[in-house]
């Protein structure tokens, strides 16, 4: 465990969990699907709350059963009514909620239930060392999520449109990206289809990540 002097140097970083998507490839609300006795997105929320993030925002659809079935204690909840306009709208709703009070925003996908607090902490520490950089996990050449955006890029991020999240900005001139090698599978496994959900259950339902 890091000592107190190190903790004081951690950059103020918000976790923003995107849970307002339409799940068009799945055909149903995938984030409420059960995994290890909880809705899938609950695992992401629990990991974020147990980490060294400064605060956690959960972006939910305006009308969803998720409001009733999730444990959101300690989280800030915002709604994104513009589901038809793509992921950028929920992305921006979360960012607007924190943009004036943090050095960075770490964006989580709600369909990555294997993410662990230790992994999140490693990414927070990396961002704290270079808070002018974007930060993303990498494993064997594959980039994963969550991605951390420094506050100097918030205004540009709020101009995004469509269903791509922050990906278009990663190719922007002058962007500094720090890739952090992560050995755990959590940042690299997400669930977009019924087949992927069944694979998640088959491989990880009864075993640790």
What structural class do the secondary elements suggest?
A: alpha/beta
Give the helix level as a range of percent.
Answer: 25-40%
Strand order of the largest sheet: 5-4-1-6-9
Task: State the end-to-end CA separation.
Answer: 21 Å
Low-confidence stretches: 1-7
**Averaged pLDDT:** 89
User: Could you spell the SSE succession in H and E letters?
Assistant: HEEEHEHEHEHEEEHEH
Total number of helices:
7
Task: Tell me the total number of β-strands.
Answer: 10
Largest sheet: 5 strands, mixed
Q: What is the beta-strand fraction? A: 15-25%
Characterization of this structure:
The chain has 209 residues and is α/β, with parallel strands linked by helices. 28% of the residues lie in helices and 22% in strands. The protein is built from 7 helices and 10 strands. The protein has helices at 4-7, 40-49, 66-69, 87-98, 117-129, 154-157, 194-204, and strands at residues 13-18, 34-35, 38-39, 55-61, 76-80, 104-109, 134-139, 142-143, 147-150, 177-181. A 5-stranded mixed sheet has the order 5-4-1-6-9, with helices on both faces. The chain has a 3-stranded mixed sheet with strand order 8-7-10. The radius of gyration is 16 Å and the shape is globular.
């Amino acid at each position: 465990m890091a000592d107190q002097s190190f903790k004081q140097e951690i950059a103020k970083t918000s976790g923003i969990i995107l849970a307002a998507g339409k799940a068009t490839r799945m055909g149903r609300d995938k984030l409420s699907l059960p995994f290890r006795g909880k809705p899938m997105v609950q695992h992401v929320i629990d990991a974020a709350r147990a980490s060294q993030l400064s605060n956690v925002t959960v972006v939910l659809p305006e009308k969803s059963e998720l409001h009733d079935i999730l444990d959101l204690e300690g989280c800030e909840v915002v709604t994104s009514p513009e589901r038809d306009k793509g992921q950028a709208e929920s992305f921006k709703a979360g960012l607007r909620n924190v943009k004036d009070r943090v050095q960075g925003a770490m964006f989580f996908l709600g369909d990555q239930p294997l993410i662990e607090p230790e992994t999140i902490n490693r990414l927070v520490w990396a961002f704290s060392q270079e808070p002018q950089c974007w930060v993303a996990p990498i494993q064997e050449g594959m980039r994963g999520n969550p991605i951390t955006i420094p506050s100097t890029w918030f205004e540009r991020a709020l101009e995004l449109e469509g269903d791509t999240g922050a990906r278009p900005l990663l190719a922007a001139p002058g962007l500094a990206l720090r890739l952090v090698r992560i050995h755990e599978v959590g940042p690299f496994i997400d669930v977009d289809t019924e087949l992927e959900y069944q694979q998640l259950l088959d491989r990880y339902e009864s075993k640790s990540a």
